[in-house]
Amino acid sequence: MVRVLAVADEIVEQLWTDQVHQLEVDLIVAAGDLPFDYLEFLANALDKPLVFVPGNHDVDLSGYSNVRGLWTKAGVPVRWPGPTGAVNADERVIDVAGLRIAGLGGSIRYNRCPNQWTERQQARRARRVSRLAGWRRLRDGRGVDVLLTHSPPLDCGDEPDAPHRGFECFRGLVSRLQPPFMLHGHIHPHGVPRPDRHLGDTRVVNVVGYKVLDVSGAHDET
């Protein structure tokens, strides 16, 4: 069992102090739209790996490559603008702290800012993640334990206004991957409780602010 600190969208003041040491976790995951120095503080204070996907208010992190510690973009050495030491899981499937995590950042497109996608664009990205997860499963028999996204699925914890509408393609992705957990941000509670929802056997959790979750690793789909 892996204990996960999941954060998104809203800074929790007590976590940005020494009080964070009271948390005993194995992994930090971030579902977007948080200051990168806040994420770096959490990772350093807890001395645990940090995995994140970008939100629609984050900077554009696409096109960066890291080869033996050197960051480049378009072949030119650059400084990566993301949180130091963190793993960007956007459009990837990664293994960390005993869990297999598939990630898709961003929101539905509603203006020209980065990390926004049309339904068709996000569906294309979701198909890539599905293929990557399938190749991993063929290789070692393990499925995805956590689907980490910024936005929720359509009609599953989203809102009716255009910027906060969820992605229809996420419902199909959950059906294909069947992860025990889908963790997302983007939808601020505004004082209204946001209960967990389910898509099949997948527990869909809004982690805006923070949640501490116990996730069983080695999800076997064979």
Average pLDDT figure? 95
Please count the helical segments: 3
Q: Radius of gyration over alpha carbons?
A: 16 Å
Class of secondary structure makeup: alpha/beta
Oligomeric composition of the shown chains: single chain
Termini gap: 20 Å
Q: Quick one: overall form?
A: globular
Secondary structure tally: strands: 16
Q: What percentage of residues falls in helices of 4 or more residues?
A: 10-25%
Question: Biggest β-sheet, characterized?
Answer: 6 strands, mixed
**Secondary-structure element order, N to C:** EEHEEEEEEEEEHEHEEEE
Instruction: Please give the order of strands in the largest beta sheet.
Output: 8-9-12-13-15-14
Brief overview, please?
The protein has 222 residues and is α/β, with parallel strands linked by helices. It has 3 helices and 16 strands.
Description:
- The structure is a single chain.
- With 222 residues, the protein is α/β, with parallel strands linked by helices.
- Helix content is 19%, strand content 29%.
- The strands form four sheets. A six-stranded mixed beta sheet has the order 8-9-12-13-15-14.
- α1 links the parallel β2 and β3.
- α2 packs parallel to α3.
- The chain is globular and about 35 Å long.
- The mean pLDDT is 95.
